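[stage:ingest] chain + small molecule (zinc ion)
[stage:ingest] validated
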Amino acid sequence: MGVSDRISLAEVARATGVALGSFDSASVAKALGGFASTHIGGDTHPTIADISECLFFSPGDGRIWLQDQRMVLLHTEALGAMRREMVDSMGIEKARGLFTRAGYVSGARDAQLVRKHWPDADPPAAAMAGTRLHALEGVVKVELVSVTYDPDTSGYEGEFIWHNSSEDDEHIAAYGIGGSPACWMQVGYATGYVSTLFGRLIVFRETMCRSMGHAQCRVVGKSADKWDNIEEDMRYLNAREFVDTAAYARSEAGPADLAPSEAPAGDAMVGASSAFNAACHQLSRVARTTATVLFTGESGVGKEKFASMLHRISPRKDQPFIAVNCAAIPETLIESELFGVERGAYTGASHSRPGRFERASGGTLFLDEIGMLSFVAQGKLLRALQEGEVERVGGTRGIAVDVRVVAATNEDLRQAVREGRFREDLFFRLNVFPIHLPPLRERRDDIPLLMNHFLNHYRRKHGCNTGGFTQASVRTLLNYDFPGNIRELQNLVERAVIMADADGLIDVHHLFTGGETLSAEVMTLRMQGNSGTLNFEGAPACANPILAGAVSPQSLEQTERDTLERAISACQGNLSAAARRLNTTRAKLAYRARKHSLI
Ligand SMILES: [Zn+2]
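[stage:predict] done
[stage:export] C-alpha coordinates:
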Protein backbone atom coordinates (compact mmCIF):
# COMPACT_ATOMS: atom_id res chain seq x y z
CA MET A 1 0.00 0.00 0.00
CA GLY A 2 1.30 3.42 -0.90
CA VAL A 3 1.91 6.39 1.32
CA SER A 4 -1.55 7.65 0.50
CA ASP A 5 -3.05 4.47 1.92
CA ARG A 6 -5.10 4.11 -1.22
CA ILE A 7 -5.17 0.96 -3.22
CA SER A 8 -6.37 0.46 -6.71
CA LEU A 9 -8.88 -2.07 -7.90
CA ALA A 10 -6.08 -4.27 -9.19
CA GLU A 11 -4.34 -4.23 -5.83
CA VAL A 12 -7.56 -5.16 -4.09
CA ALA A 13 -7.91 -8.05 -6.46
CA ARG A 14 -4.41 -9.18 -5.71
CA ALA A 15 -4.68 -8.69 -1.97
CA THR A 16 -8.00 -10.49 -1.73
CA GLY A 17 -6.96 -13.23 -4.10
CA VAL A 18 -9.63 -12.53 -6.68
CA ALA A 19 -8.52 -14.31 -9.77
CA LEU A 20 -8.00 -11.50 -12.19
CA GLY A 21 -4.92 -13.28 -13.45
CA SER A 22 -2.18 -11.03 -14.60
CA PHE A 23 -3.50 -7.51 -14.38
CA ASP A 24 -3.92 -5.99 -17.79
CA SER A 25 -6.67 -4.00 -19.35
CA ALA A 26 -8.16 -6.94 -21.21
CA SER A 27 -8.59 -9.06 -18.10
CA VAL A 28 -10.06 -6.19 -16.13
CA ALA A 29 -12.42 -5.49 -18.99
CA LYS A 30 -13.41 -9.13 -19.02
CA ALA A 31 -13.90 -9.23 -15.27
CA LEU A 32 -16.04 -6.13 -15.46
CA GLY A 33 -18.43 -7.31 -18.08
CA GLY A 34 -16.43 -7.69 -21.24
CA PHE A 35 -17.08 -4.33 -22.80
CA ALA A 36 -13.93 -4.14 -24.76
CA SER A 37 -15.15 -6.97 -26.94
CA THR A 38 -18.83 -6.14 -27.17
CA HIS A 39 -18.45 -2.47 -27.89
CA ILE A 40 -17.81 -0.84 -31.16
CA GLY A 41 -14.77 1.32 -30.59
CA GLY A 42 -13.99 -0.58 -27.42
CA ASP A 43 -10.36 0.36 -27.70
CA THR A 44 -10.97 4.07 -27.83
CA HIS A 45 -10.01 5.94 -24.71
CA PRO A 46 -11.12 6.04 -22.02
CA THR A 47 -11.37 2.25 -21.94
CA ILE A 48 -12.77 0.30 -19.01
CA ALA A 49 -9.19 -0.17 -17.81
CA ASP A 50 -8.51 3.59 -17.98
CA ILE A 51 -11.67 4.22 -16.00
CA SER A 52 -11.06 1.53 -13.41
CA GLU A 53 -7.78 3.24 -12.60
CA CYS A 54 -9.88 6.10 -11.22
CA LEU A 55 -11.38 3.82 -8.58
CA PHE A 56 -9.54 3.74 -5.25
CA PHE A 57 -10.30 1.85 -2.11
CA SER A 58 -9.08 3.59 1.01
CA PRO A 59 -10.20 1.21 3.77
CA GLY A 60 -7.83 2.84 6.26
CA ASP A 61 -10.00 5.93 6.45
CA GLY A 62 -13.28 4.34 5.40
CA ARG A 63 -13.52 5.83 1.95
CA ILE A 64 -13.90 4.71 -1.65
CA TRP A 65 -13.07 7.19 -4.35
CA LEU A 66 -14.02 7.42 -7.97
CA GLN A 67 -11.38 10.01 -8.78
CA ASP A 68 -12.39 12.91 -6.52
CA GLN A 69 -15.95 11.71 -5.82
CA ARG A 70 -16.63 9.69 -2.70
CA MET A 71 -18.56 6.49 -3.37
CA VAL A 72 -20.09 3.77 -1.18
CA LEU A 73 -20.62 0.09 -1.69
CA LEU A 74 -24.27 -0.40 -0.85
CA HIS A 75 -26.17 -3.67 -0.84
CA THR A 76 -28.63 -3.61 -3.71
CA GLU A 77 -31.10 -5.15 -1.29
CA ALA A 78 -30.79 -2.09 0.94
CA LEU A 79 -31.40 0.11 -2.06
CA GLY A 80 -34.34 -2.14 -2.93
CA ALA A 81 -35.76 -1.82 0.59
CA MET A 82 -35.47 1.95 0.43
CA ARG A 83 -37.10 1.99 -2.97
CA ARG A 84 -39.97 -0.17 -1.84
CA GLU A 85 -40.59 1.92 1.24
CA MET A 86 -40.60 5.08 -0.81
CA VAL A 87 -43.06 3.67 -3.33
CA ASP A 88 -45.34 2.50 -0.52
CA SER A 89 -45.18 5.73 1.46
CA MET A 90 -45.25 8.39 -1.24
CA GLY A 91 -46.70 6.60 -4.25
CA ILE A 92 -45.04 5.27 -7.35
CA GLU A 93 -45.06 8.57 -9.25
CA LYS A 94 -43.20 10.51 -6.59
CA ALA A 95 -40.77 7.71 -5.87
CA ARG A 96 -40.01 7.37 -9.55
CA GLY A 97 -39.23 11.10 -9.75
CA LEU A 98 -36.95 10.91 -6.75
CA PHE A 99 -34.92 8.04 -8.19
CA THR A 100 -34.79 9.60 -11.66
CA ARG A 101 -33.33 12.80 -10.23
CA ALA A 102 -30.84 10.97 -8.02
CA GLY A 103 -29.73 9.07 -11.12
CA TYR A 104 -29.44 12.35 -13.04
CA VAL A 105 -27.07 13.77 -10.42
CA SER A 106 -24.97 10.63 -10.51
CA GLY A 107 -24.76 10.71 -14.32
CA ALA A 108 -23.88 14.40 -14.36
CA ARG A 109 -21.05 13.75 -11.88
CA ASP A 110 -19.63 10.95 -13.99
CA ALA A 111 -19.75 13.12 -17.11
CA GLN A 112 -17.79 15.78 -15.24
CA LEU A 113 -15.22 13.16 -14.27
CA VAL A 114 -14.77 12.05 -17.88
CA ARG A 115 -14.59 15.66 -19.10
CA LYS A 116 -11.97 16.54 -16.55
CA HIS A 117 -9.89 13.43 -16.88
CA TRP A 118 -10.04 12.89 -20.65
CA PRO A 119 -10.54 16.38 -22.04
CA ASP A 120 -9.37 15.25 -25.47
CA ALA A 121 -11.70 12.24 -25.84
CA ASP A 122 -13.89 12.77 -28.89
CA PRO A 123 -17.61 13.13 -28.09
CA PRO A 124 -18.73 9.60 -29.09
CA ALA A 125 -15.91 8.04 -27.04
CA ALA A 126 -16.71 10.27 -24.07
CA ALA A 127 -20.37 9.24 -24.38
CA MET A 128 -19.41 5.56 -24.43
CA ALA A 129 -17.35 6.04 -21.28
CA GLY A 130 -20.64 6.58 -19.44
CA THR A 131 -21.76 3.04 -20.26
CA ARG A 132 -18.45 1.74 -18.86
CA LEU A 133 -18.73 3.79 -15.68
CA HIS A 134 -22.28 2.57 -15.21
CA ALA A 135 -21.01 -1.01 -15.46
CA LEU A 136 -17.99 -0.39 -13.25
CA GLU A 137 -20.31 0.99 -10.58
CA GLY A 138 -22.18 -2.31 -10.73
CA VAL A 139 -25.44 -0.86 -11.98
CA VAL A 140 -25.99 -2.42 -15.38
CA LYS A 141 -24.21 -4.02 -18.31
CA VAL A 142 -24.65 -1.92 -21.41
CA GLU A 143 -24.64 -3.18 -24.96
CA LEU A 144 -24.50 -0.69 -27.77
CA VAL A 145 -27.11 -1.06 -30.50
CA SER A 146 -26.48 2.12 -32.44
CA VAL A 147 -25.26 5.61 -31.87
CA THR A 148 -25.09 8.59 -34.17
CA TYR A 149 -23.28 11.78 -33.45
CA ASP A 150 -23.19 14.64 -35.91
CA PRO A 151 -20.35 17.06 -35.11
CA ASP A 152 -21.90 19.69 -37.38
CA THR A 153 -25.14 19.90 -35.43
CA SER A 154 -23.86 18.34 -32.19
CA GLY A 155 -26.89 16.07 -32.57
CA TYR A 156 -26.83 12.80 -30.61
CA GLU A 157 -29.02 9.73 -30.79
CA GLY A 158 -28.26 6.41 -29.13
CA GLU A 159 -29.91 3.05 -28.55
CA PHE A 160 -28.68 0.54 -26.01
CA ILE A 161 -29.62 -2.79 -24.47
CA TRP A 162 -29.30 -3.08 -20.72
CA HIS A 163 -28.43 -6.48 -19.30
CA ASN A 164 -28.61 -7.47 -15.62
CA SER A 165 -30.20 -4.20 -14.52
CA SER A 166 -29.79 -4.01 -10.74
CA GLU A 167 -32.90 -1.87 -10.44
CA ASP A 168 -35.04 -4.45 -12.24
CA ASP A 169 -33.77 -7.18 -9.92
CA GLU A 170 -35.02 -5.23 -6.91
CA HIS A 171 -38.21 -4.05 -8.54
CA ILE A 172 -39.21 -7.52 -9.71
CA ALA A 173 -38.37 -8.98 -6.29
CA ALA A 174 -40.72 -6.46 -4.66
CA TYR A 175 -43.54 -6.09 -7.17
CA GLY A 176 -43.19 -8.78 -9.82
CA ILE A 177 -43.77 -8.09 -13.50
CA GLY A 178 -45.89 -5.03 -14.21
CA GLY A 179 -46.97 -2.67 -16.92
CA SER A 180 -44.37 0.08 -16.81
CA PRO A 181 -40.57 0.34 -16.99
CA ALA A 182 -38.73 0.35 -13.67
CA CYS A 183 -35.11 1.37 -14.37
CA TRP A 184 -35.78 4.87 -13.09
CA MET A 185 -32.40 5.73 -11.65
CA GLN A 186 -30.59 4.26 -14.65
CA VAL A 187 -32.67 6.34 -17.07
CA GLY A 188 -31.92 9.40 -14.94
CA TYR A 189 -28.24 8.53 -15.01
CA ALA A 190 -28.12 8.23 -18.80
CA THR A 191 -30.02 11.52 -19.18
CA GLY A 192 -27.74 13.33 -16.72
CA TYR A 193 -24.58 11.86 -18.23
CA VAL A 194 -25.23 12.59 -21.90
CA SER A 195 -26.91 15.96 -21.28
CA THR A 196 -23.92 17.13 -19.27
CA LEU A 197 -21.56 15.91 -21.96
CA PHE A 198 -23.32 17.67 -24.83
CA GLY A 199 -24.68 20.72 -23.03
CA ARG A 200 -28.23 20.09 -24.18
CA LEU A 201 -31.06 18.03 -22.80
CA ILE A 202 -30.80 14.48 -24.19
CA VAL A 203 -33.63 12.42 -22.73
CA PHE A 204 -33.48 8.64 -22.38
CA ARG A 205 -36.54 6.45 -22.34
CA GLU A 206 -36.91 2.74 -21.69
CA THR A 207 -38.83 1.24 -24.60
CA MET A 208 -38.56 -2.29 -23.16
CA CYS A 209 -37.89 -3.32 -19.58
CA ARG A 210 -37.32 -6.56 -17.72
CA SER A 211 -39.89 -5.38 -15.15
CA MET A 212 -42.46 -5.48 -17.97
CA GLY A 213 -41.59 -9.06 -18.86
CA HIS A 214 -39.05 -8.40 -21.63
CA ALA A 215 -35.82 -10.39 -21.75
CA GLN A 216 -33.69 -7.26 -21.45
CA CYS A 217 -34.22 -3.54 -21.21
CA ARG A 218 -33.86 -1.36 -24.28
CA VAL A 219 -33.27 2.39 -24.02
CA VAL A 220 -33.29 5.16 -26.58
CA GLY A 221 -31.78 8.59 -26.01
CA LYS A 222 -32.29 11.66 -28.13
CA SER A 223 -32.60 15.40 -27.93
CA ALA A 224 -35.62 16.55 -25.90
CA ASP A 225 -37.14 18.36 -28.87
CA LYS A 226 -37.17 15.12 -30.89
CA TRP A 227 -39.48 13.26 -28.47
CA ASP A 228 -43.23 13.40 -28.42
CA ASN A 229 -44.84 14.08 -25.03
CA ILE A 230 -41.57 15.17 -23.45
CA GLU A 231 -43.65 16.53 -20.55
CA GLU A 232 -44.07 12.92 -19.44
CA ASP A 233 -40.32 12.52 -18.96
CA MET A 234 -39.88 15.95 -17.45
CA ARG A 235 -42.48 15.12 -14.80
CA TYR A 236 -39.91 12.82 -13.24
CA LEU A 237 -36.92 15.09 -13.75
CA ASN A 238 -38.65 18.05 -12.09
CA ALA A 239 -39.01 18.02 -8.34
CA ARG A 240 -42.24 20.03 -8.34
CA GLU A 241 -44.99 20.57 -10.85
CA PHE A 242 -44.15 24.29 -11.03
CA VAL A 243 -40.67 23.57 -12.36
CA ASP A 244 -40.72 24.35 -16.06
CA THR A 245 -41.62 21.61 -18.51
CA ALA A 246 -42.72 23.73 -21.46
CA ALA A 247 -39.13 24.93 -21.82
CA TYR A 248 -38.24 21.61 -23.46
CA ALA A 249 -41.38 20.99 -25.44
CA ARG A 250 -41.17 19.87 -29.02
CA SER A 251 -41.51 22.64 -31.55
CA GLU A 252 -43.58 21.57 -34.54
CA ALA A 253 -42.27 24.29 -36.81
CA GLY A 254 -38.60 25.15 -37.17
CA PRO A 255 -37.45 27.50 -34.43
CA ALA A 256 -37.18 30.38 -36.88
CA ASP A 257 -40.85 30.06 -37.83
CA LEU A 258 -42.09 30.28 -34.30
CA ALA A 259 -43.60 33.40 -32.92
CA PRO A 260 -41.28 35.06 -30.44
CA SER A 261 -41.95 33.72 -26.99
CA GLU A 262 -43.79 36.18 -24.79
CA ALA A 263 -42.49 35.21 -21.39
CA PRO A 264 -39.02 36.49 -20.46
CA ALA A 265 -36.44 33.69 -20.51
CA GLY A 266 -35.45 34.31 -16.93
CA ASP A 267 -39.02 33.54 -15.91
CA ALA A 268 -38.74 29.78 -16.26
CA MET A 269 -37.75 27.65 -13.30
CA VAL A 270 -35.31 25.11 -14.65
CA GLY A 271 -33.17 22.62 -12.77
CA ALA A 272 -32.72 19.09 -11.49
CA SER A 273 -29.78 19.48 -9.08
CA SER A 274 -30.23 18.61 -5.45
CA ALA A 275 -29.60 22.21 -4.38
CA PHE A 276 -32.32 23.48 -6.72
CA ASN A 277 -34.72 20.73 -5.70
CA ALA A 278 -34.23 21.50 -2.02
CA ALA A 279 -35.17 25.14 -2.62
CA CYS A 280 -38.25 24.05 -4.63
CA HIS A 281 -39.43 21.76 -1.85
CA GLN A 282 -39.04 24.55 0.71
CA LEU A 283 -40.91 26.93 -1.56
CA SER A 284 -43.82 24.58 -1.99
CA ARG A 285 -43.97 23.93 1.74
CA VAL A 286 -44.15 27.57 2.79
CA ALA A 287 -46.34 28.78 -0.12
CA ARG A 288 -49.61 27.62 1.45
CA THR A 289 -48.95 29.63 4.63
CA THR A 290 -48.76 33.39 5.16
CA ALA A 291 -45.29 33.27 6.74
CA THR A 292 -42.79 35.92 5.80
CA VAL A 293 -40.11 34.49 3.50
CA LEU A 294 -36.58 35.80 3.11
CA PHE A 295 -34.69 34.77 -0.02
CA THR A 296 -30.93 35.02 0.22
CA GLY A 297 -28.25 34.43 -2.38
CA GLU A 298 -25.96 36.19 -4.80
CA SER A 299 -27.14 38.47 -7.58
CA GLY A 300 -28.56 36.62 -10.57
CA VAL A 301 -29.56 33.40 -8.81
CA GLY A 302 -33.27 33.97 -9.49
CA LYS A 303 -34.63 35.37 -6.22
CA GLU A 304 -37.33 37.42 -8.01
CA LYS A 305 -38.36 34.33 -9.92
CA PHE A 306 -38.75 32.26 -6.77
CA ALA A 307 -40.67 35.09 -5.11
CA SER A 308 -43.21 35.37 -7.92
CA MET A 309 -43.54 31.58 -8.07
CA LEU A 310 -44.21 31.58 -4.32
CA HIS A 311 -47.12 33.91 -4.99
CA ARG A 312 -48.40 31.89 -7.95
CA ILE A 313 -48.62 28.65 -5.99
CA SER A 314 -50.05 30.27 -2.85
CA PRO A 315 -53.73 30.68 -1.90
CA ARG A 316 -53.26 34.41 -2.68
CA LYS A 317 -52.53 33.77 -6.35
CA ASP A 318 -55.62 35.64 -7.60
CA GLN A 319 -54.71 38.74 -5.61
CA PRO A 320 -52.03 41.29 -6.58
CA PHE A 321 -48.31 40.55 -6.58
CA ILE A 322 -46.41 43.80 -6.14
CA ALA A 323 -42.63 43.86 -6.50
CA VAL A 324 -40.44 46.70 -5.24
CA ASN A 325 -36.71 46.94 -5.76
CA CYS A 326 -35.59 48.90 -2.74
CA ALA A 327 -32.23 49.71 -4.36
CA ALA A 328 -33.87 51.25 -7.43
CA ILE A 329 -35.94 53.84 -5.56
CA PRO A 330 -34.19 56.91 -4.15
CA GLU A 331 -34.03 57.00 -0.37
CA THR A 332 -36.18 60.14 -0.23
CA LEU A 333 -39.01 58.49 -2.16
CA ILE A 334 -39.01 54.98 -0.71
CA GLU A 335 -41.32 55.81 2.19
CA SER A 336 -44.03 57.37 0.05
CA GLU A 337 -43.65 54.55 -2.50
CA LEU A 338 -44.16 51.86 0.10
CA PHE A 339 -46.61 53.45 2.48
CA GLY A 340 -48.39 56.07 0.36
CA VAL A 341 -48.74 59.78 0.87
CA GLU A 342 -51.45 62.18 2.05
CA ARG A 343 -52.20 65.34 0.14
CA GLY A 344 -50.08 68.24 1.32
CA ALA A 345 -47.58 66.04 3.13
CA TYR A 346 -44.82 67.86 1.28
CA THR A 347 -44.49 70.34 -1.57
CA GLY A 348 -45.72 68.65 -4.72
CA ALA A 349 -47.94 66.11 -2.95
CA SER A 350 -51.08 67.42 -4.62
CA HIS A 351 -53.04 64.17 -4.32
CA SER A 352 -53.33 61.50 -1.73
CA ARG A 353 -52.23 58.15 -3.10
CA PRO A 354 -51.83 54.66 -1.72
CA GLY A 355 -48.42 53.05 -1.43
CA ARG A 356 -47.38 49.61 -2.65
CA PHE A 357 -48.41 48.09 0.68
CA GLU A 358 -52.01 49.14 0.21
CA ARG A 359 -51.97 48.13 -3.45
CA ALA A 360 -50.75 44.66 -2.51
CA SER A 361 -53.59 44.21 -0.03
CA GLY A 362 -54.86 40.65 -0.02
CA GLY A 363 -51.81 39.57 -2.03
CA THR A 364 -48.05 39.49 -1.80
CA LEU A 365 -45.52 42.31 -1.53
CA PHE A 366 -42.02 41.44 -2.70
CA LEU A 367 -39.25 43.67 -1.35
CA ASP A 368 -36.07 43.05 -3.33
CA GLU A 369 -32.68 44.22 -2.01
CA ILE A 370 -34.23 44.80 1.40
CA GLY A 371 -30.79 45.64 2.82
CA MET A 372 -30.91 48.97 0.99
CA LEU A 373 -33.96 50.19 2.91
CA SER A 374 -33.45 53.40 4.90
CA PHE A 375 -33.59 53.23 8.67
CA VAL A 376 -36.88 55.16 8.87
CA ALA A 377 -38.46 52.90 6.26
CA GLN A 378 -37.20 49.87 8.19
CA GLY A 379 -39.09 51.11 11.27
CA LYS A 380 -42.30 51.58 9.29
CA LEU A 381 -41.94 48.18 7.68
CA LEU A 382 -41.52 46.57 11.08
CA ARG A 383 -44.71 48.22 12.26
CA ALA A 384 -46.58 47.07 9.17
CA LEU A 385 -45.41 43.51 9.79
CA GLN A 386 -46.18 43.54 13.49
CA GLU A 387 -49.47 45.39 13.53
CA GLY A 388 -50.79 44.81 10.04
CA GLU A 389 -51.23 48.49 9.37
CA VAL A 390 -49.40 51.25 7.56
CA GLU A 391 -49.42 55.01 7.91
CA ARG A 392 -49.15 57.19 4.82
CA VAL A 393 -46.50 59.91 4.76
CA GLY A 394 -48.18 63.00 6.24
CA GLY A 395 -51.05 60.88 7.49
CA THR A 396 -52.25 60.52 11.06
CA ARG A 397 -54.17 57.28 11.08
CA GLY A 398 -53.18 53.68 10.52
CA ILE A 399 -54.62 51.84 7.51
CA ALA A 400 -55.12 48.12 7.97
CA VAL A 401 -53.41 45.98 5.35
CA ASP A 402 -53.44 42.24 4.78
CA VAL A 403 -50.20 41.65 2.96
CA ARG A 404 -47.82 38.75 2.82
CA VAL A 405 -44.30 40.14 2.76
CA VAL A 406 -41.56 38.34 0.86
CA ALA A 407 -38.07 39.85 0.91
CA ALA A 408 -34.79 39.16 -0.83
CA THR A 409 -31.22 40.23 -0.34
CA ASN A 410 -27.76 39.44 -1.65
CA GLU A 411 -26.28 40.95 1.48
CA ASP A 412 -25.43 39.19 4.71
CA LEU A 413 -28.14 40.81 6.83
CA ARG A 414 -26.66 39.50 10.07
CA GLN A 415 -23.50 41.36 9.21
CA ALA A 416 -25.55 44.46 8.39
CA VAL A 417 -27.16 44.14 11.82
CA ARG A 418 -23.74 43.90 13.48
CA GLU A 419 -22.59 46.99 11.60
CA GLY A 420 -25.70 48.87 12.73
CA ARG A 421 -27.08 49.31 9.21
CA PHE A 422 -30.09 47.07 9.66
CA ARG A 423 -32.56 46.81 12.52
CA GLU A 424 -32.16 43.60 14.42
CA ASP A 425 -35.86 43.35 15.31
CA LEU A 426 -36.78 43.71 11.63
CA PHE A 427 -34.23 41.08 10.66
CA PHE A 428 -35.80 38.54 13.03
CA ARG A 429 -39.26 39.49 11.81
CA LEU A 430 -38.22 38.87 8.18
CA ASN A 431 -36.12 35.80 8.81
CA VAL A 432 -39.11 33.60 9.75
CA PHE A 433 -38.59 31.28 6.80
CA PRO A 434 -35.27 31.84 5.02
CA ILE A 435 -34.67 30.13 1.67
CA HIS A 436 -31.11 30.21 0.40
CA LEU A 437 -30.67 30.03 -3.35
CA PRO A 438 -27.26 28.61 -4.20
CA PRO A 439 -24.96 30.24 -6.78
CA LEU A 440 -24.83 28.52 -10.16
CA ARG A 441 -21.32 27.21 -9.56
CA GLU A 442 -22.77 25.16 -6.67
CA ARG A 443 -25.48 23.64 -8.85
CA ARG A 444 -23.44 22.85 -11.94
CA ASP A 445 -25.67 19.86 -12.70
CA ASP A 446 -28.24 22.40 -13.88
CA ILE A 447 -25.95 24.17 -16.35
CA PRO A 448 -26.80 21.87 -19.31
CA LEU A 449 -30.54 22.21 -18.62
CA LEU A 450 -30.25 25.99 -18.45
CA MET A 451 -28.09 26.14 -21.59
CA ASN A 452 -30.73 24.10 -23.40
CA HIS A 453 -33.54 26.27 -22.11
CA PHE A 454 -31.92 29.62 -22.97
CA LEU A 455 -30.82 28.35 -26.38
CA ASN A 456 -34.38 27.35 -27.27
CA HIS A 457 -35.75 30.59 -25.94
CA TYR A 458 -33.38 32.89 -27.82
CA ARG A 459 -33.57 30.89 -31.02
CA ARG A 460 -37.27 31.62 -31.01
CA LYS A 461 -36.90 35.20 -29.91
CA HIS A 462 -34.27 36.12 -32.50
CA GLY A 463 -35.50 33.78 -35.24
CA CYS A 464 -32.20 31.87 -35.51
CA ASN A 465 -31.63 28.20 -36.28
CA THR A 466 -28.45 27.89 -34.25
CA GLY A 467 -27.88 24.15 -33.85
CA GLY A 468 -26.35 23.98 -30.40
CA PHE A 469 -22.98 24.25 -28.69
CA THR A 470 -19.56 23.02 -29.82
CA GLN A 471 -17.75 20.67 -27.47
CA ALA A 472 -15.24 23.41 -26.63
CA SER A 473 -18.00 25.80 -25.61
CA VAL A 474 -19.78 23.14 -23.52
CA ARG A 475 -16.50 22.47 -21.74
CA THR A 476 -15.87 26.15 -21.13
CA LEU A 477 -19.36 26.80 -19.78
CA LEU A 478 -19.26 23.77 -17.49
CA ASN A 479 -15.96 24.99 -16.04
CA TYR A 480 -16.79 28.68 -15.85
CA ASP A 481 -17.34 30.27 -12.47
CA PHE A 482 -20.40 32.40 -13.35
CA PRO A 483 -19.90 35.32 -10.96
CA GLY A 484 -23.17 36.72 -12.38
CA ASN A 485 -24.95 33.37 -11.95
CA ILE A 486 -27.99 32.39 -14.05
CA ARG A 487 -28.45 35.91 -15.37
CA GLU A 488 -24.90 35.84 -16.70
CA LEU A 489 -25.40 32.46 -18.39
CA GLN A 490 -28.61 33.80 -19.91
CA ASN A 491 -26.82 36.87 -21.29
CA LEU A 492 -23.94 34.78 -22.64
CA VAL A 493 -26.32 32.47 -24.50
CA GLU A 494 -28.42 35.32 -25.90
CA ARG A 495 -25.34 37.07 -27.20
CA ALA A 496 -23.96 33.84 -28.65
CA VAL A 497 -27.24 33.06 -30.45
CA ILE A 498 -27.00 36.47 -32.12
CA MET A 499 -23.27 36.19 -32.86
CA ALA A 500 -23.21 32.63 -34.22
CA ASP A 501 -23.87 31.80 -37.88
CA ALA A 502 -27.54 31.27 -38.66
CA ASP A 503 -27.31 27.47 -38.93
CA GLY A 504 -23.99 26.93 -37.19
CA LEU A 505 -22.96 25.96 -33.67
CA ILE A 506 -22.15 28.26 -30.80
CA ASP A 507 -18.41 28.35 -30.19
CA VAL A 508 -16.38 29.78 -27.34
CA HIS A 509 -15.69 33.09 -29.09
CA HIS A 510 -19.42 33.68 -29.58
CA LEU A 511 -19.99 33.32 -25.85
CA PHE A 512 -16.98 35.18 -24.52
CA THR A 513 -16.50 38.19 -26.70
CA GLY A 514 -14.13 40.10 -24.47
CA GLY A 515 -16.75 41.75 -22.31
CA GLU A 516 -15.85 39.07 -19.79
CA THR A 517 -12.63 40.91 -18.94
CA LEU A 518 -14.26 41.84 -15.69
CA SER A 519 -15.38 38.37 -14.77
CA ALA A 520 -11.91 37.14 -15.63
CA GLU A 521 -10.58 39.65 -13.15
CA VAL A 522 -12.95 38.45 -10.51
CA MET A 523 -11.81 34.93 -11.17
CA THR A 524 -8.20 36.01 -10.92
CA LEU A 525 -8.83 37.37 -7.47
CA ARG A 526 -10.57 34.20 -6.39
CA MET A 527 -7.77 32.12 -7.72
CA GLN A 528 -5.36 33.87 -5.40
CA GLY A 529 -7.61 33.50 -2.40
CA ASN A 530 -8.52 29.86 -2.92
CA SER A 531 -6.81 26.75 -4.03
CA GLY A 532 -9.61 26.15 -6.52
CA THR A 533 -8.59 25.51 -10.07
CA LEU A 534 -9.74 27.60 -12.95
CA ASN A 535 -10.04 25.79 -16.18
CA PHE A 536 -10.27 28.29 -18.94
CA GLU A 537 -9.10 26.18 -21.86
CA GLY A 538 -10.01 27.57 -25.18
CA ALA A 539 -11.59 30.69 -23.79
CA PRO A 540 -10.22 33.93 -25.16
CA ALA A 541 -9.81 35.19 -21.61
CA CYS A 542 -6.62 33.09 -21.51
CA ALA A 543 -5.01 35.44 -23.92
CA ASN A 544 -6.28 38.28 -21.85
CA PRO A 545 -3.46 40.50 -20.58
CA ILE A 546 -5.30 40.90 -17.31
CA LEU A 547 -5.39 37.17 -16.68
CA ALA A 548 -1.78 36.94 -17.73
CA GLY A 549 -1.04 39.71 -15.25
CA ALA A 550 -2.31 37.46 -12.49
CA VAL A 551 0.97 35.60 -12.47
CA SER A 552 3.14 38.69 -12.19
CA PRO A 553 4.21 39.48 -8.63
CA GLN A 554 1.56 42.03 -7.81
CA SER A 555 0.24 42.59 -4.35
CA LEU A 556 -3.34 41.64 -3.53
CA GLU A 557 -3.95 45.29 -2.61
CA GLN A 558 -2.80 46.45 -6.02
CA THR A 559 -4.86 43.78 -7.77
CA GLU A 560 -7.92 44.83 -5.81
CA ARG A 561 -7.32 48.48 -6.64
CA ASP A 562 -6.91 47.71 -10.37
CA THR A 563 -10.04 45.55 -10.40
CA LEU A 564 -12.11 48.22 -8.67
CA GLU A 565 -10.77 50.97 -10.87
CA ARG A 566 -11.59 49.09 -14.06
CA ALA A 567 -15.04 48.12 -12.86
CA ILE A 568 -15.94 51.67 -11.83
CA SER A 569 -14.66 53.17 -15.06
CA ALA A 570 -16.38 50.49 -17.15
CA CYS A 571 -19.65 51.48 -15.48
CA GLN A 572 -19.00 55.21 -15.96
CA GLY A 573 -18.70 55.75 -12.25
CA ASN A 574 -22.03 54.12 -11.37
CA LEU A 575 -21.12 52.34 -8.14
CA SER A 576 -24.24 50.18 -7.99
CA ALA A 577 -23.59 48.86 -11.50
CA ALA A 578 -19.91 48.29 -10.72
CA ALA A 579 -20.86 46.42 -7.55
CA ARG A 580 -23.16 44.16 -9.53
CA ARG A 581 -20.42 43.35 -12.02
CA LEU A 582 -18.07 42.44 -9.20
CA ASN A 583 -20.77 40.48 -7.46
CA THR A 584 -20.63 42.49 -4.27
CA THR A 585 -22.81 45.10 -2.59
CA ARG A 586 -22.62 48.78 -3.31
CA ALA A 587 -21.71 49.46 0.32
CA LYS A 588 -18.77 47.07 0.27
CA LEU A 589 -17.56 48.37 -3.07
CA ALA A 590 -17.82 51.98 -1.92
CA TYR A 591 -15.89 51.15 1.24
CA ARG A 592 -13.05 49.55 -0.70
CA ALA A 593 -13.04 52.25 -3.36
CA ARG A 594 -12.69 54.89 -0.65
CA LYS A 595 -9.87 52.91 0.92
CA HIS A 596 -8.01 53.08 -2.38
CA SER A 597 -8.97 56.74 -2.85
CA LEU A 598 -10.79 55.89 -6.05
CA ILE A 599 -13.82 58.01 -5.12
ZN1 LIG B 1 -35.48 -1.99 -17.06
